[in-house]
Amino acid sequence: MAKIFVYDAERNILETFHRSESEYMPYNTNGTMRVREFRGSSKSSVLWTTKQAMESWNKTRSAYGKPIPFRYAFKRIWEGGHGLLSQHYAGVSFDVGQTLSPSQRRDIWNTAKSLGVWGYVEPLSMTPTWVHFDRRYGKPACSTGYTTLRLDSRGCYVLILQDALNTLGYATAGLDGRFGPATHRAVRNFQGDNSIKVDGVVGCSTWEKLCSKVKGNGASSTTVDP
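Above: the chain sequence. Below: its structure as tokens.
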């Protein structure tokens, strides 16, 4: 049984669901994505995504009209497997079509690109054996990556932040996607220990230092896994 956070970026609210591996993801329509498929190779008991990412998937799958096999969706940042500020860690990114032919992947790419529902559809020249699209949200703190976070922020990027801080031993009093006082203190402590301006705001320099320290290093004794 997985605990699944779903962030609605338009309404700035977080919802919580509990689903078995064989059940369908929240907001998935027509049974095109089970929990175990979204999970991929992640071993986590908690997963997260956004309502908007699921809606983008639904529209793409409906427009394409045929099954879209995919291998990589969600990962927690300490599990690694993707880039430093990957949208896979936010649960809003999908790598699909690995078992399909080049022409089938091009058809999926054209469908995803033409719909305009994804924040980013990676050029096929960069992903010759799969198709990558993601529904990132907000203005990134760096040229790419995650948004600037501060007290009272919510969402999947806050979940990444809390996950990384907890794993490094900076307690955020849980993993809930809400940037409260405990997360604020943890950020300030991390900034102070890493020669970053101590302001409690998670901008580009804080994100890059935090992610570089935790990405792919595995869970620790302080990792929160509700």
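The chain has a mean pLDDT of 96.
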